[in-house]
Design brief:
Layout lengths: L1 H17 L7 E3 L14 H6 L4 E2 L3 E4 L8 E4 L1 H6 L7 E3 L4 E4 L4 E6 L11 E7 L15 E10 L16 E6 L26 E10 L2 H15 L1
Helix pairs in contact: 1-4
Length: 227
C-alpha cells in the first residue's frame, strides 16, 4: 500500500517538472524510488552523480509522514549520521526545497538507522543550469493541434470535378525539439477529358499549455494526504 501511495506521489510531482521554468529544474530525489530506505548505501549518490544542480532548482523529497523524514545538516553530522547541529528538520512530506545559492548541501533521514542504511544525499550546487544528465525521450509540456481543411476548385471547362475528402484534425504530443503530426484524406477523382483541379490545403496551428497539470497536482496530493 505504501508503495502505491509513493508511486502516486511521484507521478503527481512529475507534473511539476513539466511546468517548470526553463531557467530552473525540479529534481525528484530518488526518481521512482522516492525518499525511502534504498537497497544499497550508494543509491542516492548514484542518482545524483550524473545530475547538474543549479541555483533556483528545486529538490522534491517524496515520502510519507511518519515513515520517513528529512534533515538538512552540516558535513560533520552528515558523515557520522548524527544530529548534533541540524540546520533544519522536515516531517510533513513531500518536502520541496529551493536551492538558493551555490555550495554543498547535505541531507539525510533522521529516523532510526535510515541514514546508516544509505538514506542520505550530498549535492553540490553550481552556477550552471540544472539538468538530469539524461535526454528526456519525449516532451509532454505542450499539445500541438493541427487542422487541415481541403477545398476543391472547379475548372469552368472541365466536365467533371474532383471529389475532396473531409478535413482532418490530428492531436499529437510534441516529441523532441519540435514535432507536428497532420493528416488529410482525399477522395478519388474521375474525368473523361480534363484533369481535376488540385485541392488547396490550409492549416492552422495552436499550442495549448498543460494548465490542467495544476489541477492534477492539487487533486492527487489531496487524495494522498487523506488516505
Amino acid at each position: 500500500m505504501d508503495k502505491m501511495h509513493l508511486t502516486l506521489m511521484v507521478a503527481t510531482l512529475s507534473c511539476l517538472v513539466l511546468m517548470e521554468s526553463v531557467n530552473a529544474f525540479t529534481h525528484i530525489v530518488g526518481g521512482n524510488h522516492g525518499w525511502r530506505v534504498p537497497d544499497n548505501k550508494t543509491f542516492f549518490q548514484d542518482w545524483a552523480k550524473p545530475r547538474t544542480f543549479g541555483v533556483g532548482d528545486k529538490l522534491v523529497f517524496p515520502y510519507r509522514p511518519g515513515a520517513n523524514n528529512l534533515m538538512a545538516v552540516k558535513k560533520p553530522d552528515f558523515d557520522k549520521c548524527e544530529q548534533d547541529d541540524p540546520i533544519n528538520m522536515y516531517f510533513q512530506g513531500p518536502t520541496i526545497l529551493e536551492l538558493t545559492k551555490p555550495g554543498d548541501y547535505y541531507y539525510y533521514d533522521g529516523i532510526g538507522k535510515h541514514c546508516e542504511a544509505g538514506m542520505k544525499l550530498h549535492i553540490v550546487v553550481g552556477t550552471k543550469e540544472g539538468s538530469s544528465g539524461e535526454n528526456m525521450p519525449f516532451k509532454l509540456d505542450t499539445f500541438v493541434i493541427r487542422t487541415s481543411s481541403l477545398t476543391t476548385t472547379s475548372a469552368a471547362t472541365a466536365p467533371a470535378a474532383a471529389a475532396s475528402g473531409p478535413s482532418a484534425t490530428v492531436f499529437a504530443a510534441s516529441s523532441g525539439p519540435s514535432a507536428t503530426v497532420s493528416a488529410a484524406s482525399t477522395g478519388p477523382s474521375a474525368s473523361a477529358s480534363a484533369t481535376a483541379a488540385a485541392p488547396k490545403a490550409s492549416a492552422a496551428t495552436a499550442t495549448h499549455k498543460l494548465g490542467f497539470g495544476v489541477m492534477l497536482v492539487a487533486m492527487a496530493l489531496s487524495m494522498f494526504l487523506l488516505v
